[in-house]
């Protein structure tokens, strides 16, 4: 099982980034997928979640209206489009696949929002 995040980097406030998470080793289309983030000195928090077929999504209040989670089950990939980024969005972003008692995590990608 492997989840590989990409797309992080340094961006100015108000800018945008698109994160990707490529999955392998499990039946991606049967798993709900989530993005989490962890800032220095803080606990990991849920950012967004999408159902296995992509018909349902949910977001943390802090990112509603700015972030969009999506998935392409043909490509075994989940995305997080992040717009209007703020310095407080700075964190390591992780993707997670969940089904029943199974949780799979990626290694994370750093997002830094700074001028």
Give a short summary of the structure:
With 115 residues, this protein is mainly beta. The protein is built from no helices and eleven strands.
Question: If you had to describe this structure to a student in words, what would you say it looks like?
Answer:
With 115 residues, this protein is mainly β. 0% of the residues lie in helices and 54% in strands. The strands form two sheets. Strands 2, 4, 5, 6, 9, 10 and 11 form a seven-stranded mixed beta sheet that branches. A four-stranded antiparallel beta sheet has the order 1-3-8-7, with no helix packed on it. It starts with a strand and ends with a strand.
Mean pLDDT over all positions: 97
Order of helices and strands: EEEEEEEEEEE
Inertia-based shape: globular
Uncertain regions spanning at least 5 consecutive residues: none
Helical/strand content category: mainly beta
Report the radius of gyration as a whole number of Å: 13 Å
What is the count of DSSP helices, taking H or I runs of 4+ residues? 0
Q: What percent of the residues sit in helical stretches (DSSP H or I)?
A: under 10%
Share of residues in strands: over 45%
Could you give a short account of the major beta sheet?
Answer: 7 strands, mixed
Please provide the count of β strands.
Answer: 11
Distance between the termini: 37 Å
Please name the defining characteristics of this protein:
mainly beta, 7-stranded mixed beta sheet, 4-stranded antiparallel beta sheet, 11 strands, globular
């Amino acid at each position: 099982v492997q989840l590989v995040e990409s797309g992080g980097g340094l961006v100015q406030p108000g800018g945008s980034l698109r994160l990707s998470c490529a999955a392998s080793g499990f039946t991606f289309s049967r798993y709900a997928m989530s993005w989490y983030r962890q800032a220095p000195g803080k606990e990991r928090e849920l950012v967004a979640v999408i159902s296995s077929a992509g018909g349902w999504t949910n977001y943390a209040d802090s990112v509603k209206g700015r972030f969009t989670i999506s998935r392409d089950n043909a490509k075994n990939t989940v995305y997080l489009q992040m717009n209007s980024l703020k310095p407080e969005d700075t964190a390591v972003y992780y993707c997670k696949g969940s089904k029943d008692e199974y949780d799979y995590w990626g290694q994370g990608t750093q997002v830094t929002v700074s001028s």
